[in-house]
Amino acid sequence: MPSSIIAGVGHYVPSNVVTNKDLTKLMDTTDEWIIERTGIRERRYAHRTEETTTTMGIEASKIAIKNAGLKNEDIDFIIFATLSPDYYFPGCGVLLQRALKMQEIGALDVRNQCSGFIYAMSIADQFIKTGMYKNILVVGSEKHSFGLDFTTRGRNISVIFGDGAGAVVVQATEEKGRGILSTHLHSDGESAELLAMYNPGTHANHWTDVKYADFNNAELADMFMSHAMIDKAQNFPFMDGQAVFKKAVVKFPEVIMEALGKNKLKKEDINLLITHQANLRISQFVQKTLGLSDDKVYNNIDRYGNTTAASIPIALSEAFQSGKIIEGDIVCMAAFGSGFTWGSLIMKW
Ligand code: COA
Fold first, then answer.
1. Terminus of the chain with fewer CB atoms < 10 Å: N or C?
2. For residue 230, is it left (φ>0), alpha (ψ between -120 and 50) or beta?
């Protein structure tokens, strides 16, 4: 059975740097509050019109494909993870396929928010192991700056998120003992509404005072996105930060230990841990729980904020570029986020 290696990795972040001080001009917040609670000093925001989730994903993909020593036509399948797609539908995968003039290959969008990249990697790994594909492009990209509430009302969320993209080429190898050793995926929908963007959506809250017989286009449009929803800020994401924090600090270590246990590895065997960059305090808590030294953990949330599905591939790309990952290293990746969903991946590089 073939194994999945990461043959190429790349990332792209917009050039526009937005500091905490910049945000203080828009809302009641301070540099100190943001650094103390989240560890974030600055983030990148994509160009309003010229950059989209797909265009950033394309830039990251070009680097990953080049680093793998491949051409666009060598890619057999695309998996694109994002919560901030260019269109409500179709997904970003097909837009990337078109832009990179790829063959008429399959393109799948994954909507698992912060754990989207781990889920996407797990899917890629299954396709490689069954022998169906040889080179799969996995992308994580987000343009959060497009849909955040930049008033004081939305400050608990808007200070956290940033834009960017990362990509990897997952490739089949017959070499034994290398590549992805296992992936572990979980969910608990009990708290689905605690970190969510409700609209536009088909959930029942829209339907309370409208009878089927009364339908007309105006009412339907109103259910999709009404002025009332906008007035109540229901077009922006909602987050119960403390609930997310409490669950994340339990599930991150649990799913990392699950990956280690499955492969009969110990915490000390990890050469590099890359967790989804949700919040520096969460990452530090996980590091402490596992007893890992600073050189075994990669964090960049101070520079990019939380880039959701893009955060792991951006960090992976930076860590690889800076020589922090070498062949034979045990690299563990883990994510937790909206859903709640969480997961881990462990590999021998
Ligand atoms: N600047 C200044 N004050 C802020 C603020 C901001 N950006 N955001 C919230 N506050 C205020 C609140 O209004 C509240 O004020 P009050 O006490 O007068 O009511 C106070 O700070 C504390 O709010 P709270 O939400 O309890 O803060 P917290 O210590 O839980 O920190 C988070 C907020 C969001 C940083 C924290 O809960 C967190 O990191 N959660 C995890 C979030 C996460 O990782 N999300 C990504 C998931 S993948």
1. N
2. alpha
